[in-house]
Predict the structure.
Amino acid sequence: MNDAPVNNSYDDVPYDSNPFVQSHPSRLATMATLFGLTPTDVARCRVLELGCASGGNIIPVAEAFPNSWFVGVDLSARQIADGELLLRKTGLANVSLRHASIADIDDTYGRFDYIITHGVFSWVPRDVQEKVLEVCANRLAPNGVAYVSYNTYPGWHMRGMIRDMMRYHAFRFDAPAQRIGQARALLDFLAQSTAKDTGAYGVLLRSELELLQNQSDQYLYHEQLEEVNEPVYFHQFMARAERHGLRYLGESRINTMVTGNFGPEIQKTLAVMATDQIQSEQYLDFVRNRTFRETLLVRAEQVPNWAIVPERVYGLHVACGAKAVGKPIDLASIAPSAAQFQSQSGMVVSAANPMFKAAMLALIDAWPATISFVELLQHAVAKLGRIATNEDLQTLALSVLNAYISSDLLELYAAPVVFARVAGEKPVALVHARVRAADGHASVANRRHETAKLSDIALRLLPLLDGTRDRAALVEALAAQAVAGELTVRRSGQPITDAAELRAGLTATLGPTFDALAREALLLS
């Protein structure tokens, strides 16, 4: 057993512990399902996270799945202590956060259905990297899925060069705050010095500098200034994983595995050059200048089938945050007309198939909730005024699958995303979000495992939503905070001081704030 050091860089500069939607067990189970495997139900599973920080990624998932068990391991005593305090405040009993080294993980931990390693692999020495892969191989259940993120070449060649420059300059200073400040100073110097450089070096450098200048201090410190940051080519990562008895499943973001957006000629060339999935993925990295991967691994005896068939979506759940754009959608015409839907990223997708258009309208109505595929079929045929046929089933499944793979129009989940779309008489918010807001954090994890940013009024309101207060009581509690100077309520830009006006203003604000919390999937009732 290795003794965990008393202090490390994450004790000095803690990393914000946030949800990573791409590492959610439901996402991992979805990918495994689409590639022909049978993953464990995420509602009753065991999850291990390596490098869990203060639990910001697994604690919200544990709240959503109380019948599952979650273990987090981290080398930072400070971050584990923060996480344990958070757990005590939430009362969640299905999470264990452990101050330990990854090297300490042994048979006593048992097997896990899902193993998550986000932001760890590239930032630890080679022997610890090997231990990460060993843990994935030895601690995965027979049908388990592991998620490992890491920096990749060729994209990291440019970023690595900038990192070397920052470390050369920043490490003339001792304190973390000084190093961060000096790293930023160097970035500003490089940006100014290459502002008029129109050559390839100047263009590439500026694009990278733009990304770095907008990052947080903790990101700069741990991503760019840590002693270890070892990117690898994808084929190198997989060669090492295979030596540990692991097999490639895919990527957490399935659209990165698609070659269709390069055109038929590129697809044809890739098919000739690449003799297997690993080679195909590596050539895609060359074309895209990829910098980062979120790779999914399974045990060697599990054999994925990357030829996805529509039937694999039958047991999944669907969500869609898109909106209809252009002409009003007509479902009644005999001759189908194309409808346009715009995703949250701005991508516009055209669809003429009546079944898919009807399904899209149902999904947009339900957003941000999920609809099971079977229910979605029923919603769609109801809008079309007919009974579902087997052909409708196949048509909708194929349409959903194509939209999911080729765009960001739809989301697929292995488990439903459960929350309240309307605030109840005595509203209840997610306990993890309530505790975080009570501690003054304006960003909280929602039920979709995203980071939701709170308005000033929502930040004050959220901790009060424990099911014990109706709207009148909530107004009184907020008014008391305003009187105490903890909350400022304004009208036409001016603070309200009159007690009656204050209550009227808060009452008027409450409804829209509840609507916003519901849209952010933060309410349970």
